[in-house]
């Protein structure tokens, strides 16, 4: 379960980073258009319109950067949970292994006692 949550968080982070990259590319295109417009013959209203659009895109970049930061935080949180689960599993496996070893020891001790008892009975019957 923790692995799935971590993978989902990583996918979400990748998606958010891709969105941010697309918005930044859009911003570069607008800057180019602004530069070209400023060098050519354009009306003030066209320049103002491009500048206003650039400000809107800047606001989108800010919001998307916040989304990326939130996705990074989720990844760190899920990564921590995944590490926690790995430690828990390791502890559980070690405890299971020790319990099995104790069971084997007790079982072998019982078998040895039974063999000793049989040997004692045989020795008593011979003698």
List the helices and strands and how they pair.
Elements: H1 2-39, H2 44-126
Helix pairs in contact: 1-2
Describe this structure in words.
The protein has 127 residues and is an all-alpha fold. It has a domain at 2-89: Methane Monooxygenase Hydroxylase, Chain G, domain 1. It is built from 2 helices and no strands. Helix 1 (2-39) runs antiparallel to helix 2. The longest helix is centred in the last third of the chain and has 83 residues, at 44-126. The protein is rod-shaped and about 125 Å long. The two termini are 67 Å apart.
Tags for this entry?
mainly alpha, rod-shaped, 95% helix, Methane Monooxygenase Hydroxylase, Chain G, domain 1, 2 helices, 127 residues
What does the overall shape look like?
Answer: rod-shaped
Number of strands: 0
CATH first level of the domain at 2-89: which class? Mainly Alpha
Major sheet = none
Helix proportion range: over 70%
Give me the secondary-structure category.
Answer: mainly alpha
Radius of gyration: 35 Å
Q: Average pLDDT across residues?
A: 94
- Supply the number of helical segments: 2
